[in-house]
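A reminder before we start the practical. When you read a complex entry, don't treat the lines as separate problems. The point of joint prediction is that each chain is placed relative to the others, so the output describes one connected object in space. Small molecules and nucleic acid strands, if listed, are placed in the same frame. In the example below there are three entries. Take a minute to note the order of the lines before looking further.
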Amino acid sequence: MLPTPAPQVASIARHDPALTSRWATVLLIAVLLWPLVVLTEFNPSVLFDARSLRSTGRFVASFLPPRSDAEFVWLLLHETWRTVAIATAGLTLAGLIAVPLALGASARLSISALARPMAAWPFALRSVLRATMVLLRSVPEVVWALLFVRVVGLGPTAGVIAIGITYGGMLGKVYAEILEASDPAPTQALLRNGSGRLQALLYGALPQCAAELVSYTVYRWECAIRASVVLGFVGAGGLGQMLDSSAKMFSGGEVSAILLVFIALVAASDRISAVLRRAMA
Amino acid sequence: MPASAARDGDLVVSLRGLHAPAAALATTPALHGLTLDMRRGEQIALIGSSGAGKTSLLQSLSCAVTPLSGSLELFGTNPWALSSRDRQRLRGRLFLAPQVPPLPPRQRVVTAVLAGRLPSQSLAASVRSLWHPREASLAHEALCALDMGDKLWERVDRLSGGERQRVGLARALVADAELWLIDEPLSALDPARATQVIEQLTEAARRSHRTLVCTLHQVEVARRGFDRIVALRSGVIVYDGAAADFTDAQVAALYGSREALEIQADGATPQDAAPSRAVDGARPPVPMICR
Amino acid sequence: MNTPKPLTPPPARHAARWMGLGIGVLVVLSFATLELRWSEFLSAGAVRDMGRFAASFFPPETSSAFLKRTLDATLETLAMSLLGTLLAALGGIALALPASARGHENARPAAAARLLRLLTRGALNVLRSVPELVWASLLLIAAGLGPLPGTLALALHTTGVLGRLFAESIENAPSEPAFALRVRGIGAVRVFLFATLPQIWPQVIAYTLYRWENNIRAAAVLGVVGAGGLGQMLYYHLGLFQTHESCTVLAAMVALVALVDALSFATRRWLSR
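Here is the predicted structure of the whole assembly.
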């Protein structure tokens, strides 16, 4: 059907240059996969042996009907509000930590960098602030909560501080990144003409970044709600603590009720977050 | 390879009074009462100004839009009366090459071209071909015909616009389809290349007894490279006949009154044996051949 | 001479003010209704106690036996996060295809396809909403203690996250390559493999690597419910107030998170060169 190309040109089609690297990748994955499976004791058949099937079946069967008596529902609503409150308070604390860190770490407000590369001391300070934010972020909030529970006892305080610290690091990093990504010209113009750093921020950088900053903060609030449930597992109160105790007592009806409320809460905060972000954008 | 026991001359496409929209869910027709026959082995150039309905006609012929009224028959059957599965099988017998080459940017040229073989492959063979393309030599032949043989293992996004267009056409050459619907194959090519590509396409179609329908803006290429021209204007066929009989005055009438007046001013060409029609902007030209 | 009418702020400003007020009310109520024991946290006595508590962590426990146990737990946590993320990537791709089902033919999806899309989207939402820790505590019943429920919990939750992200990528990808294949009657799976997947592949890799970064933190704490790894060690030693050992475990956690962050960043840079 088609004209046959000359033989030396035809040989280009015989060898696929990507084939060797593909085989190498497959081999690498296979070599890595084996220790992964061993280390995680990955044996899904355990899920399906007779004993666990029976206990799973019994547990799942007890999910229906979800417990819905008035006393329990009242408790549920109370704990839901607690979860939201812990998340909100924690995020507020995080904002208070993040804003100074981000402003300090961002090179956008650097006066020494206006005319020359940044001077040594400001650079060192900024690096220290950056490292602080990394440190705050790298310890999971559950660990902070575990530590604080030892200090302040069980209850929401530990959860609020844990969220405040971790999310402070996260918010700080992203705030700094958003500031860095903005157009430097307005801020630099203001700084060059002698305005203070905060003034330059408010009049130069913030108008550009405000929407994105708010949008990310609202998204983090939604994440904080989920985190607050998790923190309940270490005693910080809220839905998580309820879920932990109900699961340990194998009360399937309570577990399913809490899960339903939780899924609804996440969906609602997801929706609110999307609406707020769209309005702010 | 020959697709079936059909012979040259069999009706491949048959339209009667077809009203069809431009896009899938639109309700206003872009084609108004088209009546058209295409036979196996024919090579047809579809011309007309922008918005005349050329792409809409190709969309209707490739069963991408349902007709609003009138009848459409492909390979002797009404595709819209078939079951979904039979219609899918019928689709494998045609090939649509859109104007913008539909190639994923990070895919390699060999895979992009061999995607034309998918309807005739099993699922297992297709998946295996993703890992290691066995029919690479087939793709290579098609690319060599379009002077792109050395780009076989390249990534699509590393090619120029004209090269990407030729890869899209190479897909047609490897596809096992009986009806080729090609939309503006020359838009990104320079004139020398354009001539070569049209020659390769028509040659390949002729050798394998396939029906080729090609929309073109380059009327000269249409007249030289194709046997038959179908001209559309505002969704209506205004010319359907031999390419050799398509006069300059008809070209002018097709593309609008201003160009017509300019050609009139240049002086009538020897082909203008018929009395020159003064094209009136208010009245649309009477269709030359009505069916 | 006309006096200019006093300008009223545009309606958008009104809405923003109301929202700001609402947020402020929420914040105040949150602090008010929680019984936060600030005094316990900020009093001189409390600060001193915290100082002593922090100081008790040093020096970290460095006996070779304990270091070996920590290293084992670290590898276990790393393996949990990696395997869980990989499984989730596969599951996410598998669910993203029906969850993004767009119409064929007349661009109006068949009822069956719409139902499938609804069901898979719902499943992905449920998987996403439930945090890993909750999944882990539920899976303990079926899988017992150890890293298996942790890996599965990570896989389940991350499938929801990645599936939704992949589905959005599929829907946002240009549709011309897929259309050109569908118009020839090619089935949905092969259209996906030959047209859509090559287009979304960079995003698939980027999202998966980003989730691996996230999952290493999640894996580290799953042990709190008994799902193995560094989390289980930390919970155990903290519970016994063995602060030196806890310090070593914490240091391992921080190092592991930093390592995975760096690896993920480097891989993303290498892949997009």
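Discuss with your neighbour: The two ends of chain C are 66 Å apart (CA to CA). What might explain this?
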